[in-house]
Amino acid sequence: MAGETGPIADTVSLSISMVIAGLFAISVYNSLEIYISIYRTFRRRQGLYFWSAICANTGIPILSVSSLLRFFALAPAGPMSIVIDIGWWMMVTGQSLMVYSRLHLVIGDPRKLRWLLCMVIGMFLFVQVPVGILFIANNYYRGPNMETPITTVFDGTEKTQLVVLSLQEVILSGLYVYEWANMRKQIEITKGRKVQTMFHELVTLFVVVVALDISLIIIQFANLFEIQVTYKPLVYSIKLKVETFVLNNLVELVSSGGNGPELPRGLMTMDRAVHDDDPWRSRRTPSLGARGGNDSELPVPKKTVSI
């Protein structure tokens, strides 16, 4: 378990080392593409949606570069483990907050939104932080054989963390599909055939998230620590690409003008005052969970750039 407690340069073959470096390079390249797309797409560079996307994307190169330096003994394992934790927290929690930040477009119940936000915050405080502390301790307090009781505990809790985080991501992305399926026929009155296309994109997002999370869990439970650390930034960079593309299309559809009669206000219920009181929600984005129509006074975002 050299990878969990320190460098791996002397324990893996040259071919494995090249694969590790290559996967990290792809992750960083994807991150650069996402930065360009974010700054070309967002006209208003503020709010939870924008900053959580920036946070998640910044975590990818931080995690990749620090892991590479630690694996090949180019930097001390202890300090690098702290940087790795910071990158991991930014990447995972930032991505979950980004997906959460647009849920108000399809969920009209503010209580559900608050519970989902509590889930994301609780996952960070009670799952990610303890596992991160174990990882740091594992790199600072190594035994003569590179393994300690901390290593065993960390190995088990890390697997649990990955499963729980994957479940959280499946819940968040699945809610878009579930809620959109329930309201899409009503929204088609004002939004037309684009609603069906949006539904297909949300289903694709859900399938991609589930497939990538399952592949990551398989590698994790195969005890291929070096590979799964390499694979994680790549997985999250791919998910972030798909999520930003689909969610930007969702925002554009909600903000665009309808092509039919306005829906009755009673079709979908949500207290608009709650919208104004929610500090986590964009105040300039209309909500399909609240109304079937669109808000003509709201600015239309720039056309989404495919990433």
> How much strand content do the residues show?
under 5%
**CATH-defined architecture:** Up-down Bundle
Overall helicity: over 70%
The biggest beta sheet reads: none
From the spread of the alpha carbons, the general shape counts as: elongated
End-to-end separation: 37 Å
The third-level CATH topology is: Rhopdopsin 7-helix transmembrane proteins
Uncertain runs with pLDDT below 50, 5 residues or more? 259-285, 290-307
Order of helices and strands: HHHHHHHHH
Q: What's the CATH class, please?
A: Mainly Alpha
Quickly count the domains: 1
Query: What's the helix count?
Result: 9
Give the helix/strand class: mainly alpha
Overall pLDDT score? 81
How many DSSP-defined strands? Answer: 0
Structural account:
This protein has 307 residues and is mostly helical. It contains nine helices and no strands. Helix 2 packs parallel to helix 8 and helix 5 runs antiparallel to helix 6. The radius of gyration is 21 Å and the shape is elongated. InterPro entries: DUF7703. Keywords: Membrane, Transmembrane, Transmembrane helix.
What labels describe this entry?
9 helices; 307 residues; mainly alpha; Rhopdopsin 7-helix transmembrane proteins
Could you give a short description of this structure?
With 307 residues, the chain is an all-alpha fold. It is 72% helix and 0% strand.
